[in-house]
Amino acid sequence: MKLGVPEVEPRCTVTGMADSTIKVPEGTRDHLAALAKERGTTIGALVAALAAEQLTAEQTRARVAESRRIMRERMHSTLTDEEFDSTPHALERVYEIAAEKAQNTLRGNAA
Hints:
- This protein has 5 helices and no strands.
- It has helices at residues 26-39, 43-52, 57-75, 81-86, 90-107.
- The protein is elongated, with a radius of gyration of 24 Å.
């Protein structure tokens, strides 16, 4: 107890989610409520799902680094990080080339 005020544990549901309040415009709240109702869920679950889909900058960096590592390892690529960074959509293009090679191999026309 601090200064006569009892300490209170944050309320949590059985699923381990803490109660939170966020301020959004009324139209946004109504839109979230409609989406949640259509999907048979709650606004909280909808917001949690939307947040889970968004990567932090660190998560994005880690995912890019891992994708490049795998590409270098499995595709024997020699592209440097600087080359990746200076070439728009380099990784996507590498995947396209790999897919084309795989299709050709499956057709018996290996290039």
